[in-house]
Amino acid sequence: MKSGKGFYVTHIYKPEKHAKYKLPLFISRIPAGFPSPADDYIDKNLDLNEYLIKHPAATFFVRVEGDSMVDAGIHSGDILIVDRALETSNNKIVVAILDGEFTVKRIRKIKNELYLLPENSNFDPIEITEEMNFEVWGVVAYVIHPV
């Protein structure tokens, strides 16, 4: 078992609030079988900022490195959309600062104890104690994972 935090934030980016990137949104579902002409089904333009960023002033993009969260679908190199305005609650995936270092883990309260849990059996849970310098920096709202 690895005892380290296992997943690190390597970059933090602020979203461009004034940028509009409208992409075509198709009103029909696209089959994964035979191709069909899709141009006739374009309904409107879609700005992903409207769907992915609920609180622009409190939202950041972070690029992560490590493998402690692979079972949650978060892989090294992924970009997380982190919303600092979302309420931290049990079982949420959070970006936290632990003793001066960023980490990404699932937060869980068990009885009266607080843990940061990895989503990889090769890593140990981290029990948060009073001696630790700990802060939840934000809640992970979405994961951008290239295919």
Structural overview:
The protein has one helix and ten strands; from the N terminus they run E-E-E-H-E-E-E-E-E-E-E. It is mainly beta and 147 residues long. It has two domains: 7-15 and 55-144, Umud Fragment, subunit A (Ribbon), CATH 2.10.109.10; 22-52, no CATH class. It starts with 6 loop residues before the first strand and ends with a strand.
Please outline the major beta sheet: 8 strands, antiparallel
- Roughly what percent helix? under 10%
Discrete helix count: 1
Q: Spans with pLDDT under 50 lasting ≥5 residues?
A: none
Q: What gap, in angstroms, lies between the N and C termini? A: 29 Å
Q: Tell me the name of the CATH homologous superfamily of the largest domain.
A: Umud Fragment, subunit A
Stated plainly, the CATH topology of the largest domain is called Umud Fragment, subunit A
Q: Numbering strands along the chain, what is their spatial order in the largest sheet?
A: 1-4-5-10-6-7-8-9
Task: State the main characteristics.
10 strands; mainly beta; 1 helix; 8-stranded antiparallel beta sheet; Umud Fragment, subunit A; 2 domains; 45% strand; 147 residues; two-stranded antiparallel ribbon
